[in-house]
Fold:
Amino acid sequence: MALWKLTPIDLLDPNWQASSHRGMAIVRAPDEAAARAAAAQAFDVATRFPPGTPVRVPPWTRDALVKAEAVEDQRYDPRGPTQVLEPPF
Structure:
């Protein structure tokens, strides 16, 4: 399975309020979409916002907010199920 490095692009975007993690993540997944979905499942949080303000959309599946790239890193085992490897839980 591939290793994916997901890197936040614009942390000033208010949609980051819908994430419990705002740093780089390493995800083991078969493809980019699965890596983004795993990160979203791990980090997305509900937000409270005042009426009349825009709804916050969790950022991990959005290309404009998170850069995804396949990486090779000997610190992480590419064998195993789809999983967020970094940050550790």
About this structure: Residues 32-43 form the longest helix (12 residues). The chain has one helix and four strands.
